[in-house]
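User
Class, as today's exercise, I want you to study this protein, comparing sequence with structure tokens, and judge whether sequence predicts the tokens.
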Amino acid sequence: MRTAVVVGTGLIGTSAALALAARGLTVHLEDADPDAARTAESLGAGTTEPAEGPVDLAIIAVPPALVGKVLADCQRRNLAHWYTDVASVKSGPGSEIAALGLDTVHYIGSHPMAGRERSGPLAARADLFEGRPWVLTPTADTDTDTLNAALELVALCGAMPIVMDADAHDRAVALVSHAPQLVSSLVAARLENADETAIRLSGQGVRDVTRIAASNPALWVDILSANAGAVADVLEEVAGDLGETVVALRALAAEEEGERRAGALGIEAVMRRGNTGQARIPGKHGAPPTRYETVAVVLGDQPGELGRLFGEVGEAGVNIEDVLIEHSDGQQVGFVQLSVAPTSVKRLTAALRAGGWSVRD
């Protein structure tokens, strides 16, 4: 593949364009908002100049409700040899494409499982898809060359291809993406009118849970409109668990010991189910989840401190598997939580303390 067109220069489209341009492809950019396309061009994602003749692959990066309309326009213009879209819902667009009688031999649905709480071309990153799953949803009509073009796109973006049925994909993303977005927003909504004193107590737990609540509401309305039934099914089950949890919490506050004991068992049960579910989330590079231990280091708010810390961890021969920075409210310090293999904890702690770092027990 040497040439591509990206139609829709938001976060996902521009990120794909940046990744392809970095691999030497000629990428043409289109958007209903010319300013968005020019912004993506200024970032090095490609050119807003029209392609001369069909390109190899057209990547349609628009909301699910617009995929059919945009694909029809692209095929009418003979824009590319092969076509894919990167919308986060597949069944609805697929049905619309079939109903419009479009060419489904040279089209394949796809969905990169990557994103950010920010949107638009300025939020784009060439490495957004590195190591992330990228779902492909071929139909019986999809020919081999089209599938191969999509697989090449995934490889060029550094992602991992996963072939799924469109309906199964939509049920899956309802569970692991769409419902969590709404739950995050619901938790964050509790903070809207909270007392300022309570807000100032916010720690890493509430920051983790509410991070994606900063997402663009209009964008998510488009997404959820295309998968509303599946998301409602998931949230209905969550609502059932919430109801049982509320009953258990009320029991914990009761005067009768047996009732309190039943409440404690109810809370323990739901948290143990949470432990089991969380442990199933794939670990590094999609491998089975690995349990790491955390070394927490106090970090001053000066330029170069984080780099110096990472350098000394490397000198100690320890690999950092993950890192989390927790800022201290009102103070010029923070805490860096380094996730490392359990066998490395003692060695790393001793090395850092010997180097003058304050390591929290």
Remarks:
- Residues 228-252 form the longest helix (25 residues).
- The domain at 171-279 is CATH 1.10.3660.10 (6-phosphogluconate dehydrogenase C-terminal fold).
- The chain has three domains: 3-164, 171-279, 293-360.
- The longest strand covers residues 293-300.
